[in-house]
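Re: your question from the hallway

Yes, I did run it. Sequences:
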Amino acid sequence: MQGGAWLPIAFEVVLLVGALAVLLVAVVAGRDRRFWGPAAGLAFAGAALAGVLQWREVSTSGAGLFFTAQGVSFAKSPMVVMDGLSAFGAIVLGLVGFVGFLAAWDLVAKVGRRGPELVSLLLLSLAGLHMMMATPNLVVIFLGLETASISFYVVAGFLRRQKGSAESSFKYFLLGSLASALFLYGVALTFAATGSLTLYGGNSIRDFFSSTIVTQPGILLAGMALMLVGIAFKVSAAPFHQWAPDVYQGAPTGAVGFMAATVKIAGFAALARIFGAGLVSQVDTWTPIVAVLAAVSMVVGTVLALVQSDVKRMLAYSGVAHAGYILTAMTAGVAGVPAMWFYVSTYAFMVVGGFAVLSTVSGSDSSKVPLDDLKGLVKRSPEMGWLMTFVVLGMSGMPFFAGFVAKVFSFVTATAVPAPWPANDHGYLWLVVLGVVMSVVGLAFYFRIIGTMFSTPDDQAELQEAGLPVRFAVIVSAVITVAFGIVPWPLIEAVRDAFPI
Amino acid sequence: MTVSIADWFKETANWVFILLAIPTLLGAWRTVTSNNIVRSVLYLVVSLGGAAAMFLSLGAAFVGWTVVLVYIGAVIILFLIGIMITRAPLGMKAELSHASNVRMPAALLSLSMFVLVAWGLIDAFSNTAIEPFEPTPTSDIANLIFSRFVVPFEVVSIVLLAALIGGIALARRDDGGGA
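Structure:
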């Protein structure tokens, strides 16, 4: 195999080395961000590159299961998997991580001497998030989840002297720990029901279902439900979304985009891995539940976003709605993975770009971003104003923006596969109708943001010029939002191969 | 096979069990009844040590040493640090007493827990003697951790690294600058 045995874990290794390098350079050369910043940037870019290499390897020599040690048959308990899902996820996570890091550059300056710790936590969290989608072992998925969660609890509370930041961190910690515990309990019950912690490979959950007919599925159902709740919490799908607005609002604006975007990518990829690939035989059991989650998320997210006066909370509720649209794609089972990838990979850039703009408007270390802060943005800073307009239009799902293609792709997917409940051949048509209605309702608050940006500024000071990395991050996000809205075919082609094995 | 009480006392291992069980129980009793919180914690050490020794005498060396390392080593230290940094009453004269409205539910809870566990054990094994089995040597566990489970093991170390960095970042005092 080209690249040697390291390629399947190259993404994690690059990020881990990067995190340690950042800390070491900060100790040896000094805590000025100019010294260790390039190391962090290289690590994010290198991680994306590792994803590209994995993608090439998968498309030439096929997917594989890895990591059983010498002397032990590797196929017996694979711990690492390299397939379309994990390789595509590595590319997306690497790129979003890189852009998110650039967007946090001004925040890094504000936290002063603690910058290296902030960035090394971002690096470690990204490694954990990829671990969630690159392993067939449920325990390793949990460990990856915990790596990311612990890092994000700290990042949310990084501005210790701000009341909002501490509150955000503590809320995230308490509720997040509960969700992690629920997920772990689900893993334990699934293990009790199937006798395996491995989704596939030798002696796996998939093997168990191919050779066993479950007559008393109580424990299995409880296990699946708890795992689903854990993941739904992490991707902030309603009714497990309550943490998101408070955490988004309190966390430092410069880092919220990174946190919100990457955790959604990994959460949905893990959902595809566990339920789409591992529990594929139980698909009729879990897709109706996912459909209900999707419906609740779309309605709750959209309706509550309408009444917010803080842009960060608004985007948080909009994120709940978007989780609903992505879950809509997943109601098709494993066939929904391409639509899921298209949606989550374009939406991630919109989130990073949107919060990057907010951090230039209200300050990267701000907690609250009232809608009035955006007043007259297009006049005060045409560059930021127009880019934010593109990003928000992308989120709203306007034609010629990536969000539109993503929604259509998701809706088409949901109706392509026959649905088990209510049994019919048109899939989850009711969910799609609801999704279209909610998209239209959602336009109200997206256009409220845009309208505010185009209104006349009331003698507010000239907008402070954002740093070059932050501007670059916003430009990249906006370009991706527009480019994949007009020319979506390359990405659609790519995600068709981004399947779990 | 069933065992009579007279036979039970002929077995040396059972005397070892009693020697271990009595301090364990006494430690647990004094943990709850002691009026001094530091003493309570130290009695808990006795109780946990008895439990660890019981695991060792059963041949479960790994579990035994885990109890010693994790519970006696880490958790007790955590308790002591917790007592130290909060404003818990300390010293010889500090009195801890609970109102009877707390004692009764606590006693009931412990009693029902005891009944539940005892009923479960008796229901499952009744008077059957369990055949001694070959204990798993700790080296087997070590071999597994560094072969089959080396990836989870390494990921755990990343989790701990993240927690460590996070703890330092949140707790360290800034010398000027920063928020």
